[in-house]
Design goal:
single chain; 2 domains; Creatine Amidinohydrolase; Arc Repressor Mutant, subunit A; alpha+beta
């Protein structure tokens, strides 16, 4: 999952993350207990991703697949790093079913993005299920991801990884989405420095052993840039303020159990939760994540893995 910079369109301050050295607290000591928890989260995610993808079929509902995946993560001993994203056709990120959503899959391009954590140590990975008979678009993002993984080693610049991604997608006749990026991962934080571009940039930061990254190429037959849509179902607590409204207070109390990670409105039991969320957003206590979309009528594919940079390459935790 991306921010609107976590997951997506980046602000000026987030753009600077391209040129800032990786944060020390965004790294893991190789062979440590934290390293093992990253691995465990990745193993859980790999299992759930495969099982959930098999359920993405014409006639199945988006909510059935999302709830299956989320419950399966819990059954396997993991926590949810963010709501399961199910993005369809021109949607690229931040789409998750609403409460009581009955939307069925049709002949669509479906991106399934899942986040798992073990004690806050996160795995983030995505797969595209093609129900449109457009396999070349899926291959473009998948091969771009493999090219990026092959390029990862200590000392490589993130701009060079972006070059591998962009050139691979271009070679398939599609466009990379230039305002979506990969990102670092830290404990209870699904988006840290450094950002990993999906196109060539002249400057990047050098990767070091212990960096934890989610690399996620997006390929499209559109123009290669997403914007915010009107639909929002994912939120995150980002501030602290005295809340007088009873509904908003109830929402905030429920949100505490998510440890500062993004959550879905459908996860809340509070009556009129949507109203409480709007009030919290107006008070800058909660941030919303609108669905990110390419222009209507286009298709988007996504591929993503989490990796840890090692002394001689990288360890992919989500295969």
């Amino acid at each position: 999952m991306l921010r609107t910079g976590l997951w997506g369109i980046y602000t000026r301050s987030e753009w600077k993350a391209f040129f800032r050295p990786p944060q020390p607290d965004g790294m893991v000591e190789l062979g440590s207990e934290a390293h093992e928890k990253y691995r465990e989260a990745g193993e859980i995610l790999a299992t759930v991703r495969e099982e959930a993808a098999e359920r993405v079929t014409v006639g199945a509902t988006q909510l059935e697949v999302a709830e299956f995946a989320e419950e399966r993560v819990r059954e396997l001993g993991g926590g949810l790093a963010f709501p399961v994203n199910i993005s369809v056709d021109e949607e690229a990120s931040h789409a998750t079913p609403a409460r009581d959503d009955t939307t069925e899959f049709g002949e669509e391009m479906v991106c399934l993005d899942i986040g798992v954590h073990v004690d806050g140590y996160i795995a983030d990975a995505a797969v595209t299920v093609d129900l449109t008979d457009t396999p070349e678009l899926v291959e473009a993002s998948e091969e771009a991801l493999e090219a990026a993984l092959d390029a990862v080693e200590p000392g490589v610049h993130t701009g060079e990884i972006g070059r591998e991604i962009g050139e691979t997608i271009d070679a398939h006749g599609y466009n990379p989405i230039v305002n979506l990026t990969g990102h670092g991962l830290d404990q209870y934080d699904a988006h840290t420095a450094p950002n990993v571009p999906n196109r060539p940039v002249e400057t990047g930061v050098e990767l070091e052993p212990g960096d934890v990254l989610a690399i996620e190429p997006f390929a499209t037959d559109g123009r290669g840039k997403v914007g915010e849509g009107s639909k929002t179902d994912i939120y995150e607590v980002v501030g602290d303020a005295r809340v007088r409204d009873r509904t908003a207070r109830s929402v905030l109390e429920e949100a505490e159990e998510f440890d500062g990670l993004p959550f879905a409105e459908r996860w809340l039991d509070t009556k009129r939760a949507q109203m409480g969320l709007r009030r919290l957003e107006m008070s800058n206590v909660v941030r919303s994540y609108p669905v990110l979309k390419e222009e209507a009528g286009t298709l988007v594919s996504q591929a993503e893995h989490t990796l840890i940079v090692t002394e001689d390459g990288c360890e992919v935790t989500t295969r």
